[in-house]
Design a protein that fits this description.
five-stranded antiparallel beta sheet, alpha+beta, 601 residues, 10 strands, Alpha-Beta Plaits
Length: 601
């Protein structure tokens, strides 16, 4: 191969720098995407209009519309209805629970973004597991992997849309659902069989709080709240009587948090800082014993009631609620104090679960991370409001799933079904079909325009749109062809099946470190060029790469859904690889067996 030109070397350096930045995770992926765009512009690899063309790419439009359609299904109660039916059908059996939620996750991911599918099923799965006495660690990882498997069998996921776009940009036909369903569906079925038959032997089953606090059905015991929650009754002689809550020693000097106040038949939850305390007020406070006991010097009686679901011992009508921070939530990087969480939702954070450990001190000062689990105390109403926030998943909101779908729910379901059918037919471009469906959902009142802006994960779209020009530059400079020649030469002795298998392993390996979306953006153009260079069907190799990008089985960071279930399931990083290595091997073997039977490779 002739030596690389300075222009090709510069582009290779930009690609390498982007990969290093993404692998190190020290630079945000959206910032990396912007820097790549700037580098390509200054390097004159693309014209100014081409540099920002990713924002108008049909793939970006389609993914954005998918977020809107999913949000409409959530808002109108369709997904709650589905989740409620699954929970009711589980019957408390561990095997039945795993089968129902794993298969349902795979089916839901055929029509929506993977993260949304898990977010829909997660609260129902946790609730059903606890009602049936099943540990969440036995259920949530198969659910997440089922969703990933289903994502490799459909067109309607980010990585699959990206590789389809790579084909179209190089003059090949775009992919349809029927291109993915035979091969991707076969691989998914093999993976599901492994998860359901062999998976239970490889899943953790923990009892200890150190191993997995969230696997306990008693939330208060799981977070060890009995050590930190106290009831404080004010005596008539207390100097605190008549003082505004904000000016007392409770918060200013002792650093104790007042969660709720009971005064005769009135409950203040949370109490206003300007509230003046009165004799016989009962305060539910959160703090260390040595701090709370100092209130006995202020004319109070301090004790601990039966701390549990509903706090029956204190007669305070509050409930415990678990909240998980969604991947790419706008709350990531901010503290609860900065978010004014207590003022906005009327709920107080009692504990935070992160990295296998429960934190119960100064929870409001922690900068939130994706996958953090928070234990909140508050009334049922605020919990239900929080459940509708796009950045959080409430595992227990106090809301029952609707018994029947309402008019808007049925309408949203019908519109979504019509959009999927039109997209599959190939008569209308998928971007136009999805965008039309999203607009129709807004016009029919299934979703408001403000909800549309909140539903779209703009950071994801920025990453995809920002890195798309890199693929275009690889093609326009001829570097994609050069790399494909090297790849084809290295695997030439293995034949077409070996080439496909090598690309699958390459894309799956890259996915574990940088995620499937970015892996598809980098490998998509190279796979198409490789197919042309060695005389293999380009759409088939593109589908193989997409299926490999769905194989996010080995690390928590390989896909946002893996982070999402980490805290509720009490998982450690090794748990993903323990189950994922066997799953990846089964999917790889299934791919090799099915390729000559189902594709024109």
């Amino acid at each position: 191969m002739p030596p690389l030109s300075p222009r090709e070397l510069l582009l290779l350096a930009i690609l390498a720098a982007a990969l290093i930045a993404l692998l190190s995770q020290r630079v945000r992926a959206d910032l990396v995407a912007l820097l790549v765009m700037v580098g390509l512009g200054f390097g004159e690899f693309l014209a100014p209009g081409e540099m920002v063309a990713g924002f108008a790419n049909p793939v970006v439009v389609t993914i954005g519309a998918l977020y809107v359609i999913t949000a409409a299904l959530e808002r109108t109660g369709v997904v709650a209805w589905i989740a409620g039916r699954l929970a009711a059908a589980s019957g408390g059996s561990e095997r039945r629970l795993v089968v129902l939620f794993t298969v349902s996750g795979a089916l839901l991911s055929l029509a929506m973004i993977n993260v949304a599918a898990v977010a829909i099923l997660l609260p129902a799965a946790v609730g059903a597991a606890r009602l049936g006495g099943v540990r969440e660690s036995r259920l949530l990882l198969p659910l997440a992997y089922g969703v990933s498997l289903g994502g490799g069998a459909t067109l309607f996921t980010s990585a699959n849309l990206i590789v389809s776009g790579s084909l179209r940009e190089q003059g090949e036909r775009a992919l349809t659902l029927l291109d993915f369903l035979p091969l991707g569906g076969g691989v998914a079925l093999a993976g599901l069989a492994f998860l359901l038959l062999v998976g239970p032997r490889l899943l953790p089953e923990r009892d200890s709080l150190v191993g997995s606090a969230l696997t306990r059905p008693d939330l208060a015991a799981a977070y060890r709240l009995s050590e930190r929650l106290w009831e404080v009754r004010l005596l008539a002689s207390s100097p605190l009587v008549g003082q505004a809550l904000a000016t007392t020693v409770i918060g200013t000097r002792l650093g104790v948090t007042v969660v709720a106040l009971l005064r005769e038949h009135e409950t203040l939850l949370p109490p206003d800082p300007a509230t003046e305390l009165a004799a016989d007020d009962v305060l539910l406070v959160l703090g260390r014993e040595e701090r709370v006991r100092q209130l006995e010097l202020e004319g109070t009686v301090v004790g601990q009631g039966a701390v549990g679901e509903g706090f029956a011992g204190s007669r305070l009508p509050v409930r415990l609620t678990e909240v998980v921070v969604r991947p790419r939530s706008t709350a990531v990087g901010q503290t609860l104090k900065e978010l004014r969480f207590r003022q906005k939702f009327g709920m107080t954070a009692l504990a935070l679960w992160r990295g296998g450990r429960s934190y119960r001190t100064d929870v409001g000062d922690f900068a939130l991370q994706s996958g953090d689990a928070l234990l909140m105390v508050g009334a049922a109403g605020p919990a239900a409001v929080l459940a509708r926030e796009p950045g959080f998943i409430v595992l227990h909101s106090g809301e029952a799933a609707p018994a029947e779908l309402g008019r808007k729910g049925l309408l949203a379901a019908l519109i979504t079904l019509a959009v999927l059918l039109v997209s599959t037919s190939g008569r209308v471009p998928i971007s136009e079909a999805m965008l039309s469906g999203a607009a129709l959902l807004v016009l029919t009142g299934c979703l408001g325009m403000d909800d549309v802006y909140r539903a779209i994960e703009w950071r994801t779209l920025l990453i995809i749109a920002g890195l798309m020009p890199l693929g275009a530059a690889l093609v326009s400079t001829g570097l994609a062809v050069r790399l494909s020649e090297q790849l084809g030469g290295a695997l030439s002795g293995a034949g077409a099946i070996g080439l496909a298998g090598g690309l699958y392993l390459l894309s799956a390996g890259l996915t574990q470190a940088i995620g499937g979306q970015v892996a598809a953006l980098i490998l998509g153009p190279i796979a198409v060029s490789t197919a042309r260079a060695v005389g293999v069907d380009p759409p088939t190799l593109a589908v193989v790469v997409a299926i490999g990008c769905a194989a996010a089985f080995l690390t928590p960071i390989s896909h946002p859904v893996n982070l999402l279930i980490m805290a509720p399931g009490g998982y450690q990083p090794r748990d993903y690889a323990r189950l994922g290595i066997g799953l990846l091997a089964v999917c790889f073997l299934a791919l090799l067996l099915l390729l000559p039977l189902l594709t024109p490779l």
